Amino acid sequence: MPLTAAESAHAGDSAPLNYFLHAAGPAAAPTLTLDWIFTTICVAVCVIVGGLLAVAIFRRRPDAPLDQLVQGNSGLRWIVIGVALSVPVLVAMLVYALVTLNRVASPAETPALTITVTAYDWWWKVAYDDAADSTLRFVTANEIHIPAGEPVRIKLKSADVIHTFWVPKLAGKTQAIPGQTNEQWIQADAPGVYRGQCSQFCGAQHAHMAFEVVAESRADFAAWSTEQAQVAASSNNLSVAAGKTLFLDKCAGCHAIRGSDAQGAQAPDLTHLDSRRLIAAGTLTNTAGNQLAWITGAQRIKPDSLMPSIALGRDEAANLAAYLATLK
Fold this sequence. Notes:
With 328 residues, this protein is of the alpha+beta class. It is 35% helix and 18% strand. It contains 7 helices and 12 strands.
């Protein structure tokens, strides 16, 4: 059964698929320029070759035996002209590509922030584990916050198969490979929300393996980090307590909520679930209704994902929703 209109709402609606035609950071701008130059050259080559082919097909040939037509140096002359024109262009393209790769290989200044991103089928674990202050180390999922105007180092890992980390407006593609740590850097020129996507086919729900990069001012980033490092708030509300018990019974084997007995490591950390814009790796907007729709219909929304569909009674759903609403 396809997703409903409400369920299908995600960041892709506000960030159409042509977002890779724009650059919003110094790691992406040189590559975008390279793309346009190479595209222009390739189109020009196609036009020239097509024109020559049309001339060869439609021009009137002299009435003469074939052996006389192939005599002479006219054919060789065109080969020499073609080589003389194409070789310098190809060499120039190679040199420019190497220069561009060198420009985006490392940022102009050493990144002050390092984030470890681990790819799973089909979501992203985001660990802020490099802070000098251990109280500011925490884990979140599918949403990467960075300070605008500053380079950020991304360490990439994979927990299962090969994935590719790609934020088109901020940087090129870098693979996440099991047993190996790759590195990339991103930088956003201005605050905003930038869509990211796994671009290496990794299984049935590859298309539903997205994430967001949220660039914000240094002050807003510091405030967000402080909030995210806190454990989940407690509540004496009876419905919330019942929802927490239900969560520990049905969800704690996979999910973690810091400050509780839920210590699962195979699914997203939900300590501050309600602070995120999206859930299910960019598939759904983060609303109370979509949270319950995901819990009860995960296998309909993302078939073959490791998240099971969990049947809930009316009271159970209300209690669980009340508890999840406290995870701010």
